[in-house]
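Module 6 notes. Inverse folding takes a fixed backbone as the condition and produces residue identities as the prediction. Think of it as a translation problem where the source language is geometry and the target language is the twenty amino acids. Below is one complete input and output pair. Work through it position by position during the lab.
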C-alpha cells in the first residue's frame, strides 16, 4: 500500500502547488500562464466581465501587459497597453510602423474587404481623403444639420412619445441604433431604409441585425487561432455559420442601396452632398472607376463608424444620467436657461427643437457626454500590428509581427490620469474655471482614436449627440426598469448586452 499512498501524496502536493501558484499570480495581478494554453483560460473564465477584468489587469501592471497565448500560435494579441505615451507612439509618432495589419484584415475581410476600416497604405489614404473632404464641406454639414432636425422630429421623438403615452417600456439602445442607421444611410447613400418607422417597434431591421451578428462573429476570429475559425468556416458551423447568413443579407442590402444611388447620381448629374457620391466623383476625377464591391465595403466601414459609436455612446450616457440625479438636474438647468433665452428672443423654431448654435452654450452637457465616453468608450480597443521590431516609450520591447491592443477602456479608468475618482461619473472634471468644457489630450482621451486615423467625424458626433440628448432630456425623464441588468457585451464596440430598458415620463415646467 506504500506506493499508492506515495502517488496520492504526490498528486495532492502537485495540486496544492498549482493552487498556490494560481493565487500567487492573482496577488501579482497576473493571470496564470498555463503550459500549452498560456493565459487563455483566465481570459475565457472572465469573458462575461472582460473589460473590467482586463482593465484592472493592465492598470495594475503599470499600463502595459504582455499576454501569453496558446503554444505554437501567433494569431492572438501579444501586448495590451493603456499607457498614453505608448498610445501616442503607436497611433501618432510611429504610425507607419503600426498599421491595422494583415491579421485584422483577414478576420474582417469577408465583411469589410478593402474598405476604410481594414485598408492600409494608399487605398486607405484615398478613401479617408474622400470621406474627409465630404465631412468638411459646407454642403455636407448643412445637409447633416437638416437631416438631423428632420429625423429627430419625424422619427425619434414620435417613437419616444408613443412609448410615453402607452406607458410602455422601451429598449432605448435599440431605438437609438435604429435611428442612427437610418440617419447614416441618408448621409452616406441619400436613402432612408426605414429601420425606425412610424410604428412602435418597426421590423425593417434585418440588415441592422445581420450587421451586428457579422461584427460579433468577425471579432471572435481575433480570439481564436486562424486555423480554427477557417476550419469552422469550411464546416459551416458555430459563429462561422452565423457569419455566412449575415453576410448574405448584408451583401444583398448594400448592393441594392449602392446600385440605386449610382443610378440616381447618373440621372441627376453629379454629387448631391452625400459621402458615396462624393467618393465616386473624386475617384472619377482622378481617372479611376471604383467597383461596386469597393463602394459597398466603404459604406460598411462608414456604417460602423457612424451608426454604432454615436448610438452606443448615447446609451451609456443616458444610463449614467439616470443613475446620477444631480447630473441630470444640472443638464436640465442648462437646457432650461437656453430655452428661456430663446423664448425671450422669440427664437423658438417651428419644430420646437434646439438649433445647432444653441448647442455651443451647453458646456455641462458636453462635459457629461465626454465623461460618459471616458468611462464607456464606444470602441474599447484599437488593434495594431508591428511592421518591425521596436521599443515603446515605457521600455516594452515589441518584436516584428506582434499584435497589439491599444486598450482605450483602461486608459479612461486610470487613477494616474484621472484621479482617485477615475471610476466615477464626474462631468465637473471637464469644466474649467470660467465654466467652459475643455478638451483633453487625445492620447489621454483616445475615444476618437488619435493620429492619422483619428475620427474624421468627431465634431459632427458631438453635435449629433448633444442635439439628440438635449431634445430628449428637455421633454422626458428616463427611468431605468427595475432589475434590468446593464453590462457591456463583448465585441468590437461596447454595446449594452441586454439593451437599455427604460420608461419615459413627460418633463414638466422645463421653462
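Target side of the pair, the amino acids:
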Amino acid at each position: 500500500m506504500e506506493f499508492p499512498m506515495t502517488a496520492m501524496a504526490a498528486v495532492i502536493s502537485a495540486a496544492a502547488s498549482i493552487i498556490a501558484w494560481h493565487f500567487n499570480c492573482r496577488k501579482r495581478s497576473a493571470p496564470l500562464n498555463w503550459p500549452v494554453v498560456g493565459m487563455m483560460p483566465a481570459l475565457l473564465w472572465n469573458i462575461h466581465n472582460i473589460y473590467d477584468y482586463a482593465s484592472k489587469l493592465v492598470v495594475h501592471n503599470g499600463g502595459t501587459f504582455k499576454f501569453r497565448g496558446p503554444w505554437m500560435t501567433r494569431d492572438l494579441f501579444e501586448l495590451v497597453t493603456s499607457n498614453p505615451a505608448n498610445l501616442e507612439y503607436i497611433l501618432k509618432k510611429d504610425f507607419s510602423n503600426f498599421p491595422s495589419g494583415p491579421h485584422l484584415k483577414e478576420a474582417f475581410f469577408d465583411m469589410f474587404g478593402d474598405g476604410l476600416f481594414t485598408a492600409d497604405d494608399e487605398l486607405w489614404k484615398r478613401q479617408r481623403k474622400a470621406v474627409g473632404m465630404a465631412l468638411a464641406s459646407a454642403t455636407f454639414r448643412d445637409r447633416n444639420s437638416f437631416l438631423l432636425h428632420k429625423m429627430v422630429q419625424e422619427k425619434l421623438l414620435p417613437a419616444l412619445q408613443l412609448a410615453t403615452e402607452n406607458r410602455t417600456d422601451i429598449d432605448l439602445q435599440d431605438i437609438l441604433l435604429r435611428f442612427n442607421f437610418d440617419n447614416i444611410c441618408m448621409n452616406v447613400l441619400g436613402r432612408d431604409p426605414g429601420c425606425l418607422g412610424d410604428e412602435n417597434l418597426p421590423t425593417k431591421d434585418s440588415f441592422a441585425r445581420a450587421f451586428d451578428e457579422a461584427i460579433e462573429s468577425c471579432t471572435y476570429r481575433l480570439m481564436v487561432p486562424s486555423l480554427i475559425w477557417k476550419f469552422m468556416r469550411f464546416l459551416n458551423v458555430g459563429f462561422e455559420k452565423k457569419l455566412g447568413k449575415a453576410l448574405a443579407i448584408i451583401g444583398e442590402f448594400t448592393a441594392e442601396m449602392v446600385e440605386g444611388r449610382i443610378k440616381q447620381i447618373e440621372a441627376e448629374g453629379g454629387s448631391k452632398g452625400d459621402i458615396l457620391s462624393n467618393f465616386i466623383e473624386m475617384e472619377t476625377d482622378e481617372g479611376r472607376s471604383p467597383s461596386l464591391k469597393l463602394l459597398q465595403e466603404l459604406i460598411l466601414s462608414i456604417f460602423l463608424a457612424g451608426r454604432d459609436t454615436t448610438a452606443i455612446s448615447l446609451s451609456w450616457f443616458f444610463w449614467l444620467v439616470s443613475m446620477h440625479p444631480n447630473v441630470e438636474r444640472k443638464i436640465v438647468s442648462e437646457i432650461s436657461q437656453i430655452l428661456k433665452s430663446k423664448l425671450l428672443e422669440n427664437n423658438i423654431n417651428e419644430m420646437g427643437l434646439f438649433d445647432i448654435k444653441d448647442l455651443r452654450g451647453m458646456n455641462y452637457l458636453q462635459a457629461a457626454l465626454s465623461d460618459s465616453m471616458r468611462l464607456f468608450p464606444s470602441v474599447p480597443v484599437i488593434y495594431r500590428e508591428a511592421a518591425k521590431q521596436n521599443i515603446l516609450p515605457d521600455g516594452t520591447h515589441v518584436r516584428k509581427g506582434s499584435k497589439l491592443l491599444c486598450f482605450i477602456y483602461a486608459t479612461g479608468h486610470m487613477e494616474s490620469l484621472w484621479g482617485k475618482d477615475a471610476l466615477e461619473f464626474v462631468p465637473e472634471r471637464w469644466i474649467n474655471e470660467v465654466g467652459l468644457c475643455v478638451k483633453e489630450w487625445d492620447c489621454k482621451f483616445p475615444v476618437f482614436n488619435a493620429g492619422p486615423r483619428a475620427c474624421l467625424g468627431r465634431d459632427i458626433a458631438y453635435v449629433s449627440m448633444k442635439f439628440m440628448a438635449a431634445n430628449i432630456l428637455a421633454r422626458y425623464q428616463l427611468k431605468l426598469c427595475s432589475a434590468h441588468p446593464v453590462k457591456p457585451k463583448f465585441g468590437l464596440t461596447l454595446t449594452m448586452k441586454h439593451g437599455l430598458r427604460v420608461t419615459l415620463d413627460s418633463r414638466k415646467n422645463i421653462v
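Reference fact for the lab report: Strands lie at 64-66, 79-81, 170-171, 381-385, 390-391, 397-398, 403-407, 476-480, 501-506.
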